[in-house]
Amino acid sequence: MTTRPTKASPPPTPSKAATTPLAETATRQAAEPNVTLAVIIGAHGITGEVRLKVFADDVSAYRSFNDGALTLKSARDGSNGVIARFAEVTDRNAAEALRGTELTVPRSALPPLEEGEYYHADIIGLSAIASDGEELGRVALIENFGAGDVLEIERPDGRRFMVPMGAQAVPEWDQTRLIVERAFIA
């Protein structure tokens, strides 16, 4: 079982000048990757509501987005996406100004996973290794065309190939790499 596609933002580079305990705590928190759960695709009405394209199962389970910059007051299904209201957005002009804004939460805010489940944000960027030990490249993208997730792996020379994300093709993965069965490598 998988979740819908999400994309991890690269963690910010910590400052070398961070030496105080408070600064060290902030640096550790800043190093945690953010995961995009939705993107604002436009305004809805005149009171500041926005339309969202959602990449998660339930965006309403979260209240704070973008490191506290946006506070979700309500979310409901609309005819072409989720309609959301944020405390900081009070009119249509402010809502329109947010078009294209990704709504992110820290990776640690996501619910724990069961055995065999994964978040796309955890797989994208992993090193891909063939079952015989050959370095293949990195997972660049995850697509889902209706029959399950498909990994797009980019080789060091920039060429890409696709592999289904299933037990036969990808028998194991962890936080640092995934193994691809030789028979599935193009």
Write up what this structure looks like:
The chain is mostly beta strands. It contains 3 helices and 12 strands. The chain is elongated, with a radius of gyration of 19 Å. The model is unreliable at 1-30 (pLDDT under 50).
Summarize the SSE layout with pairings.
Layout: H1 21-31, E1 34-44, E2 49-54, E3 64-65, E4 70-78, E5 81-86, H2 92-97, E6 102-106, H3 120-123, E7 127-130, E8 135-144, E9 149-154, E10 160-164, E11 172-173, E12 177-180
Parallel strand pairs: 7-12
Antiparallel strand pairs: 1-2, 1-6, 2-5, 3-4, 4-5, 7-8, 8-9, 9-10, 11-12
State the main characteristics.
single chain; 186 residues; mainly beta; six-stranded antiparallel β-sheet; 3 helices; 11% helix; disordered N terminus
Spans of at least 5 consecutive residues whose pLDDT stays below 50 are 1-30
Order of helical and strand elements: HEEEEEHEHEEEEEE
Regarding quaternary structure, what we see is single chain
Approximately how much helix is present in the residues? Answer: 10-25%
- Output the strand order for the largest sheet: 3-4-5-2-1-6
Proportion of residues in extended strands: 35-45%
Number of strands: 12
